[in-house]
Design goal:
Elements lengths: L5 E4 L5 E4 L4 H11 L10 H10 L1 E5 L4 E3 L7 E7 L2 E5 L7 E6 L4 E2 L1 H6 L6 E4 L3 E7 H24 L9 H10 L1 E5 L4 E3 L7 E15 L5 E7 L4 E2 L1 H6 L6 E14 H7 L4 H8 L5 H18 L1
Antiparallel strand pairs: 1-2, 3-10, 4-9, 5-8, 5-10, 6-7, 6-9, 11-16, 12-16, 13-14, 13-15, 13-16
The chain binds ligand 1OR.
The site of ligand 1OR has 18 residues, from strand 6, strand 7, helix 3 and helix 5.
């Protein structure tokens, strides 16, 4: 309860918020935040501070958790239930722009930028939320979040696949991205393997090859910064359709499968359309035979 809240002085200039919880409540918080990127890179103390500071809040279906224009007080993580997000712009009536289910989180913008709430968030079922106060959010979660959004912002604006997205949609992608590095010749994905990740090239280049049944390797045009790969296995639940290797030092931004499905939903049709242009192994074989014949005729 609120009266049991305690404020523990720390050695720095703030007091830690500690709201007593049962073991069962802690367990529910852990499972609610386990798949949320914003909580991923916390050390043990930060993690403990966040869990300590969270408060359980319940809302009934149709209740507003956040109202556009209001002052920001809490950041929320969804344990159970569903919510819709509405934005009203330039006097136009509110339009639904997004929805959340368990594991989702919202309400960070007003806390990060000290601005009014940018949207209204309404429960579309009875919901159980974990609320984190503004001070703890800013002290522990904000630095990481804004650093990552800033870090990827410019890059994501240059990725052709993502130009049609709202800036806020690219921010959510930035939250979920992680950069990975590969050395010259290293395999990033291997034909036939199970696929769990999607990749966008940040810097460097990659070669792509495809093997036929006899194991003969055919080269496919390579990939450059801003281009992506690894989507087919995630779209179709099929093994990797080609092998991608680093050509020189390669840096990629990766998304896991869950984030891919959730965050790239708005561009999934574009991804599918682009993949229709991929050459089949038969086309590759034909092309390379034709090229070889042309070369032998020329000599
Ligand atoms: P907040 O503190 O402003 C409302 O309170 C929250 O709704 C906001 O933080 C976000 O966490 C969440 N634009 C703005 N806020 C959004 C949006 C959004 N979606 C969710 N929130 N969108 C852009 C609409 C033009 C939707 C993008 C998919």
């Amino acid at each position: 309860s609120v009266s049991a809240e305690s404020m523990i002085p720390s050695h720095q200039n703030y007091v830690k918020m500690v709201i007593p919880k049962t073991v069962e409540q802690r367990r529910r918080i852990e499972s609610s935040i386990s798949n949320n990127f914003l909580f991923k890179n916390l050390d043990e103390d930060q993690h403990e501070d966040v869990v300590n500071a969270m408060t359980e809040k319940r809302f009934k279906c149709n209740e507003n958790v956040i109202e556009q224009g209001a002052v920001g007080d809490f950041f929320y993580v969804v344990e159970a239930g569903t919510l819709d997000v509405f934005v009203a712009k330039n006097g136009k009536p509110s339009e639904k722009v997004f929805e959340y289910g368990s594991g989702g989180s919202f309400g960070e913008l007003a806390l990060m930028y000290n601005g009014p709430r940018a949207a209204t968030v309404t429960a579309t079922s009875d919901v159980v939320l974990w609320a984190l106060d503004r001070i703890t959010f800013r002290r522990i979660l904000m630095e990481n979040t804004s650093r990552k959004r800033r870090m990827y912002e410019e890059f994501l604006e240059t990725v052709p696949l993502l130009v049609s997205l709202e800036p806020y949609e690219r921010h959510k992608i930035a939250d979920a991205l992680e950069s990975v590095y590969f050395d010259d010749g290293q395999e990033v994905v291997k034909q036939g393997d199970q696929g769990d990740n999607f990749f966008i090239i940040e810097s460097g280049e990659a070669t792509v090859t495809k093997c036929n049944d006899a194991g003969v390797e055919y080269a496919i045009p390579g990939l450059r910064p801003g281009q992506y790969f690894g989507e087919l296995a995630l779209l179709n639940d099929m093994p990797r359709a080609a092998t991608v290797r680093a050509k020189g030092r390669l840096k990629c931004a990766t998304l896991g499968k869950r984030a891919f499905v959730r965050l790239l939903g708005p561009v999934v049709e574009i991804i599918k359309r682009n993949s229709d242009n991929y050459q089949t192994i038969e086309q590759l074989v034909q092309q390379q035979q034709a090229a070889a014949e042309a070369a032998s005729e020329a000599t």
